[in-house]
Amino acid sequence: ETLLNGNFDWVYEEEFSIINGIEWSPDSKRIAFWQLDQSQVPEIHIAKWDSLYLNFLDMRYPKAGTRGSSVKIGIAEIASPKITWVDLGEESDIYIPRIKFTADANLLAVQRLNRLQNKLDLLFADAATGKTKTVFTENDSCWIDINDNLNFLKDKKHFVWTSAKDGFEHIYLFDYNGKQIKQLTKGNFEVDKILGVDETNKEIYFTSNERSTVNSDLYSVNYESSKRNRITETKGSHKIDLSSNQKYFIDRYSNANLIASSYLYNTSGDKIRDLVVNDMAAFKDYNLSPVEFFRFKTTDGVELDASIIKPANFDPSKKYPVLVNNYSGPGSKTVTDAWGSLWFQMLAQKGYIIFALDNRGTGGRGEAFEKMVYKNLGYWEVNDQIEGAKYLASLPYVDANRIGIWGWSYGGYASALTLAKAPDYFKAAIAVAPVTDWRYYDNIYTERYMSTPQLNPKGYETSSVMTYADQLRGKLLLIHGTADDNVHFENSVALAAKLVAENKPFQSMFYPEKNHGIFGGKTRLHLYQLMTEFILNNL
User: Of 491, 471, 473, whose CA–CA distance to 481 is shortest?
Assistant: First the structure.
């Protein structure tokens, strides 16, 4: 029950984005696998009200500062019952976020991450003996992000890898001794995903925001000549599925004003055929408002990406209320040129401006911009939402006394915190499934950005919504699913208790048996009707 072989506990799946706990060797003679021991991980008990007597769902969940699962990597022989255990070193309080066989079936690549997630080692393990050597180590003063961009070339001598060591996420070519051969991309932009390597033509295919921080495009770079080429032409969001022979790709393309359609291309950029084309004519009766993108400058001189949807039949001589849409979490992006939620269009039809910004700490703009939030979650998020409110107040068509903010999960946290800390700028907030104190959240995510509560007690205190509950003046709608196994219901219960203790009025809604997504049946209809009514009544 507590020993997992080839499977992951909740926190590994959620925070390292991995599901498959086994890796085949290239010759299919071995399987490498994770073994996680959860026996020392504290349990949580999620109440279930689906029977006459109260039941509980029990699960292992390591919160910030508590012990997580111990990890081992085994290599099983297909032809025999032999299992070889990889030497992961003397330190036991570690994570193994990725393993992958190299092009050499006798070498397993293992990524070893320390507890504070600021030191990453790439190990090569001998599949027969389990002995390891450290190929190279990356260190960071804040944290290191994990991705799937490690690709081994068939020559069994080289691999490509992305790193943010020069301040932006870029592609590098290394040899098996860890020597950097060359940096293949460079500039003030970020590589997102390496999708594949065409070794015949020596081309690496990847997605990047080089054209704009709100766009995503497909590129190639030649790992001999370093020549880079943008393949997708139209501005917007290109979600790419590359064929295994790197000759074709499916492009699921949209922009903020055009619903997604899918097309088949070759990697020269020639369209072969339309796959699924969605016609905007279906929306002709809905009077959709265009999404506009821009940057504005904060009072301390930093330019932030922003977007705005103006009300249908917009009249610049009138003053309109504003709903700020936010997520705000580290590495995230809210301001993207991609098809979005029609709920915002419906609110625009009802006379609301919809505004969004990407605060300091969000992704796509390099390490210095993103990592300003280290050990201090909540500070820059609120600071920059205030900057956004100041910018909005400068517009002649904005009613500065009717600005509200909403968000879900991290966005719910930022919304509640902003309303409490900035009552002079925000009239109302909707917080859906919010973290309210980072001591309640899981260790991998929280410690990546905040270190541990033991090492950073002040940071945890100043980042907690509860710390500012006595300052609440605006209208708050607090929403949570009782079966949320991600951001536990106790977050909203604790905030509600604190607000009651401070005699602060607020509204709340809980959704029985619903998880972090709060869906199923007519639940989403109920949720969005509730939020819409709150906005209409309070903004």
Answer: 491
Query: How confident is the model at residue 140, as a pLDDT?
Result: 98
Which residue is associated with the tokens 């069994």?
Answer: 156
The band of 1, judged by pLDDT with boundaries at 50, 70 and 90, is: confident
Which DSSP string corresponds to 286-301?
S-PPPEEEEEEE-TTS
Strands 271-276 and 291-297: unpaired
In three-state form (DSSP H/G/I as H, E/B as E, the rest C), the secondary structure along 8-70 is CCHHHHHHHCCCCCEEECCCCCEEEEEEEECCCCCEEEEEECCCCCCEEEEEECCECCCCCCE
> Under a CB-based contact definition with an 8 Å cutoff, are residues 191 and 171 in contact?
yes
From CA 327, how far away is CA 408, in angstroms rounded? 7
In whole angstroms, what is the distance from residue 277 CA to residue 262 CA? 6
In this structure, which amino acid lies at residue 118? N
Q: Tell me the C-alpha distance between 436 and 442, whole Å.
A: 13
Catalytic residues, by residue number, are 409, 484, 516
- What pLDDT, in 10s, does the model give residues 4-60? 999 999 999 999 999 999 999 999 999 999 999 999 999 999 999 888 999 999 999
Section 439-444 average pLDDT: 99
List pLDDT tens digits, range 293-319.
999 999 999 999 999 999 999 999 999
Domains and CATH numbers, the chain: 1-133 (no CATH), 140-282 (2.120.10.30), 286-538 (3.40.50.1820)
Q: Could you tell me if 335 and 358 are in contact, meaning their C-beta atoms sit under 8 angstroms apart? A: yes
What is the 3 state secondary structure string of 362-377? Answer: CCCCCHHHHHHHCCCC
Pairing between strand 507-511 and 475-481?
parallel
Question: In the numeric block, which tokens belong to residue 516?
Answer: 């972090």
b/e per residue, 422-442, with b = 16+ CB within 10 A?
A: beebbbbbbbbbbbbbbbbbb
Asked whether the whole model's pTM tops 0.85, one would answer yes
